[in-house]
Amino acid sequence: MPCLTVGGGSPHAELEPQEHKEPLSEDDLYCRCLSRTLCHTGTPVTVGLFAACTHRLFSLLDKVTGFMRQETAEREASERLRGGQRPRSPRGWGLLQALWYLSFYRAVVTEAHLRRRALAFIFIRFSAWQFAGCDRLWAGLVTALCASVRGHFGALPLSVFHVLGARPRFASGFSQREWALKRGLCLKLGALLLALGAGVAALLVALLVPGVAESRVLKVLGSGAATLSGSGLALGAFSILKNVVVSEKQRIERLTNSERFASQLGFMSKVRAEVQALVDFLAFMEVFERRRLRVVLEITGLELCYPEKVAGVLNAVNTLLSDANAPFIFILAVDPSVIVPCLEQTGCMKGMADNGYLYLNRTVTLPFSIPEMGARSRLQLLDAAMQTREDLMYRIITRNVERRRAKGDRGPDTADDADAVRCIHAAFRCLHDGSDPLSRYLPACGTHVRRIVNTIPITLRLLLHRAAGGAVAPRAAAAWVVLADGWPCRLSWALQCAEDAGQSPAGRELGRRSLWSIFEEHAAELGALAQALHNALSLDGDPELFQSFLQRDFPFTARDARILLAVTVNLDHSIRHKMGLLRGLDGLRAAAARVSRGVQCPPPE
Predict the structure, then answer these.
(1) FRET pair for 361, CA 20 to 30 Å: which of 7, 396, 459, 576?
(2) 197 or 150, higher pLDDT
(3) Is the pLDDT of residue 385 over 80?
(4) DSSP H/E element including 502
(5) CA distance 201 to 209
């Protein structure tokens, strides 16, 4: 079953998981368990896929999509082994079959159909930020759903169903008949064709038979019967053609663009009727394809939208799409720490004591909060980030070196490049070594891992250019980059305190002191400035990990920090400058307080 990606889905969504020769990572296990559950759970269901990192959410969605496809392939294979009916598709000869059944038959949901294990998913990736500029974001969600279903099955079957189709009914008793002839439609069509034939025959007789040609009554009756019956058939064909040209998405957009949008009392019922028609069409195609159909709507990017629009999307999921028989699976890939404050700022919280968590819990029927990323998942994320860099691909590097040698190129930068490549590889071997303590400090966010991977080569090249590469090992340089990325505020505070202490007369011996001892000495002062530095402190990771990093695993000294600071490009220096300003202001206030006390209480003569 092909995947439909709407609204800028990840390009990796088309990849199916390969056969895992190595043990599955922690994230793989979570996604496999979720995909197995979604293959068995009843619909409609709203899954809350909760994680703090947006990049990780996209990766998890891709894994869930791949495992669900794998599960459907296994089910179809087992169904064939059991000797069941093979699924069919509305393409090629199957399209003609589908149009025939759509026109003259009504689908019947039997017990045998309900026991079918064959399953197919239609995946729709809806990125909310692409519709953030719309007045009605939830309308974008509905139109994306309609456009994807139409694109998957084709415009013609859906148009024929809109005009001639009927809602499937459940079989009475244990009947195994899956198709019921539309006798009423057949009688009407037969009557129209009979009237058309009779009218055409009468008209031809009146025009061609000698002796009858002068009979005006026969001409009028023949032309009238032919016109009325022909217009009925033409009207049906025109309705089908109109539905082919004007899609459900265009009809909903026309309603939302109307100037009378706010005053249209029947607007929501019209939109719901469009969604209900899709649900009935999907139920019909389930019987035709001989397998269960599920539409998986993956909603991402809500964190980038305004609060009212976030609430509008959740309301659309709750009211428009959650029909009792709807084959929809909604996956809300969001960060609750961002979504909940958005919901609490809207007017939809009345009656819930302004509790965004309560509203989210009422929307989500299957919460799936991803735990902290495990060691294997971190290494897997690091591998994916390293594959994006050419200077970490050995084949490309070797090919470039051989090409230079073949051309006789002996430029002055060749030796420097070779040294830089060796240092870069040594640094990343340390990161990739699960037994190295450095791998434990890799962030769980894919964006931060990419930042580290992109920054380490720059840092090492700058060290070599400054002739400081011998003073700092590649492992230490990689650890410094990880430190600056994970705790920018606390590291900036330690660097600023070390800089201020080095400017004092007693600062000559400062170079031997550990950076952690300097931070620990001035930690209370940082706590006093916590309110002024609240935004910067929110960038830091776990404080206990920061302590173990500097105190035990990587005890950088003030001298090491002075060397590395000159090549640190992934640390916002404005944070350190703001800290220096705050410390200077505190010093001025303390001096002013001492002067004030001295004036109020002069020393005795």
Answers:
(1) 7
(2) 150
(3) no
(4) helix 488-502
(5) 11
pLDDT digits (tens, 9 = 90+) for 522-575: 888 888 888 888 888 888 888 999 999 999 999 999 888 888 888 888 888 888
The secondary structure element, H or E, covering residue 26 is: helix 26-40
How far is residue 251's CA from residue 258's CA, in Å, rounded to a whole number?
11
For residue 169, the cross-strand partners are 108
Helices (H) and strands (E) in the chain, counts: 25, 8
Task: For 415-429, write each residue's pLDDT tens digit.
Answer: 567 777 888 888 888
CA distance 214 to 303: 79
CA-based diameter of the chain, in Å? 149
Q: Per-residue confidence at 17, pLDDT binned at 50, 70, 90?
A: very low
- Residue at token pair 């129209």: 192
- The CA-atom distances, in angstroms, between 414 and each of 33, 223, 402, 418 are 51, 92, 12, 6
- pLDDT confidence bin for 8, thresholds 50/70/90: very low
- Evaluated on CA atoms 154, 156, 162, 165, the torsion sign reads negative
What three-state secondary structure class fits 169? strand
Structure tokens at 233: 């058939």
- Assigned token pair, 599: 């004036």
Exposed/middle/buried for 415, CB within 10 Å: 0-12, 13-18, 19+? exposed
Indicate the residue type of 52. A
CA 228-233-234 angle, 5° bins: 95
What is the tens place of the pLDDT at every residue in 49-93? 888 777 788 888 998 999 999 988 888 888 777 766 788 888 888
Q: How many CB atoms lie within 10 A of CB 476?
A: 19
The order of strands in the sheet holding 292-300 is: 119-127, 292-300, 328-334, 45-50, 366-369
Cis previous bond, 543, omega within 30: no
Sign of the CA dihedral with 591 first, then 593, 594, and 596 last: positive
Which structure tokens are listed for 587? 């010093």
Cβ(315)–Cβ(31) below 8 Å: no
Instruction: Report the relative pairing of strands 105-109 and 179-181 from DSSP bridges.
Output: antiparallel
